[in-house]
C-alpha cells in the first residue's frame, strides 16, 4: 500500500470539513487546494477515502463516486438532506465552496 503523502492528507482533511447536505466535485477539491486535479483527488479517495464522508465527493455532473456505490450514496444524501435531481446531487444547490472550512 502506498504511504499517504501531504496532498492526500490535505484532500482528506478538506473532505472531512464538507458539511452534511453539501458536496464538492473532485475538480472543486483540487481547485480549492490549488494543486492536483480531479484524477489525483480520485486516486486519494479510492485509496484512503473510506474513513471520511466519501459520499460528499462527486463527479461534476452530481453523480456519485462509482455506480456500484449508488445505493449507499443515495442513502447518505437523503439522510443528510442533500438536494437531489433524480439520483444525482443538484450541483446548483448542493455544491459547497469551502468558505467556512477554516483551512490552509
From TrEMBL:
Q: InterPro entries annotated for this entry?
A: ATL_DNA_repair (IPR052520), MethylDNA_cys_MeTrfase_DNA-bd (IPR014048), MethylDNA_cys_MeTrfase_DNAb (IPR036217), WH-like_DNA-bd_sf (IPR036388)
Recorded GO molecular functions are:
catalytic activity
Alphabetically, which GO biological process terms does the record hold? Answer: DNA repair
The protein's matches in CDD domains, at most eight in alphabetical order, are given as:
ATase (cd06445)
- Among its keywords, does the record have DNA damage? yes
Query: Per UniProt, which keywords does this protein have?
Result: DNA damage
Can you say what this protein is called? MGMT family protein
**Family annotation (PANTHER family):** 6-O-METHYLGUANINE DNA METHYLTRANSFERASE, ALKYLTRANSFERASE-LIKE PROTEIN 1
Methylated-DNA-[protein]-cysteine S-methyltransferase DNA binding domain mapped to chain residues: 6-73
Pfam families named among the record's database cross-references: DNA_binding_1
Which species is this record about?
A: Nonomuraea cypriaca
Q: Does the keyword DNA damage apply?
A: yes
